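Colleagues,

Please find the record for the two-part complex below.
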Amino acid sequence: MAGTVTQPRRRSPAPRNLTEPLPVRVGLTLIALAFLVLFLLVPLAAVFSEALARGWQAYLDAVREPMALAALRLTLLTAGIAVPLNLVFGLAAAWCIAKFDFPGKSALTTLIDLPFAVSPVIAGMIFILLFGRNSPLGPWLAAHDLKIVFAVPGLVLATVFVTFPFVARELIPVMEAAGTEEEEAARVLGAGGWQTFFRVTLPSVKWGVLYGVILCNARAMGEFGAVSVVSGHIRGKTNTLPLHVEILYNEYQFQAAFAVASLLAFLALVTLAAKGLVEWRSSRAGAAADAAGPGEKAA
Amino acid sequence: MSIEVRNVTKRFGSFVAVNDVSLTVPGGELVALLGPSGSGKTSLLRIIAGLERADAGQVLFEGEDATRRDVRQRGVGFVFQHYALFRHMSVFENVAFGLRVRPRSTRPSEQEIRGKVTSLLQMVQLDWLADRLPSQLSGGQRQRVALARALAVEPRMLLLDEPFGSLDAKVRQELRRWLRRLHDEIRLTSVFVTHDQEEALEVADRVVVMNQGRVEQVGSPTEIFEQPATPFVIRFMGNVNVFHGRVQSGKAHLGPLALDYPEHPQAEEKKAEGFARPYDVDVERTDAGGHGFWATLRHATPAGAVVRLELEGADGAVLQVEIARERHALLAPKLGETLYLQPRAMRVFVDPT
């Protein structure tokens, strides 16, 4: 799930004796392409063709329908809160883990991965158990007229939980690879903790940060399971885009369902494009850093 | 500024990196910490810098206790072994960093920073590379940027960790001389760590030889070389022939050698080791003085002004001898020939136990 920022390989022609025979090459390529088409392109095309099955007017109507717009707004809101929160958290956690030694470090690393290990549905249930009407906190919340479950705060909490590891996971290896010498150099030169962080640590991992944010955002917008449990499916109030798609589909409004789904698919495509751009930029930055050779450690 | 280290100890887990070390670096001197890897020299340097905290002992700057002083307040310039340049900043910004992070009240103006960085880059002859990134520089250039960056904050001392460690031989030679010249000009108290004895002897005013977390000897390069204080120092400073044996009643019996040793007149027998440098051994066809011992010639390698001979003693020990090329031509020994060896100078260390 959490990819790493890929480093560029310098392209060199493969030695001739290592080249496979032509039929094998063509066969393997075709299989890969067929797989790609069958599982990625066909579904994507199906989404858009179904969405446009009754023409542009019907598509626009479905997308402009108030409930759909409310769902879009809610999705952007949850992502807009969850992503910055997890950015701050991920940076702090990765900084701690990569640059310092302390007891309980491996426990913390494992804990960060917990949301990956737990099924999103269970994640949603956790929040119902914690903040629901029958929970220990329930009466107090009700007395103060605070709604968490079946309301926007619950959606945000569930999304934050599910997207918790993305930024941290992405940054820990990048920060560890960078080592601590540059930070030490900054300290000797008189920089304080914040100066060191903002002037030295952060710029050296900026592409990793962006990549983590993009992954985190993709998941935040697409999350279904955890959000579905805590949402309560109140139309126009607690339905995010994925939930709205499900409701429309269950009501046999196929064309409208696919139209809204196409919005989500479009957001995903934008995210993917952003990710591709970041990878491309970071691989160029990485190539420069590689040439610098930070790894030439000799005893 | 003078640096004094008093009874400093540093442990990493059960490993004692620095073991009760005391040391004084007078102001303006260029001192080398010399030792094999794991001898504690880098740890000691980092303790002086404040990057590492000593478990016990004190660090004093100009007689003032700085043990608890934060690294930022110590006024040290530190050059890291792998340079640790900020990889996303240009050469110029790297050098300017220490000035830019100062609190606003003491921060120089943009114009002053520009002037200062430019003059530093001119000093290290890199002003034409100011806009490059560190990744676009060679190792020697990066090293000089690291030095300029360390000097930009006007440190009261300069600490260098294996400054030439990851450079190739030729660049290393050049930079060594350059560092020596630079030190002669600015006279900044400087300590550098190295495992290369040649480098230490060539560059430093004073050499501190370290081994297993302890100081073996402190002295000028000449002293270290000509009067090594311990068997470790004599071995570490270059090739040497070792003769094992014992001393008793003013006599030493070391392998095939018997010699007077008035330093130990007691009747008690003690273990001892004798050391003779390859160039302190004479080679003869006959044992004229009667004090020599024989060995068989195995190899002869010409090496510039000298010829290196490798011989095998009666007990099978390998002996190394260097004789002048002219002497070799005159003697013309053949491989497999038996020759008599006579050490001209010998240092004997009695085992204290």
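Chain B has a mean pLDDT of 89.

Comments are welcome before we finalize the supplementary table.
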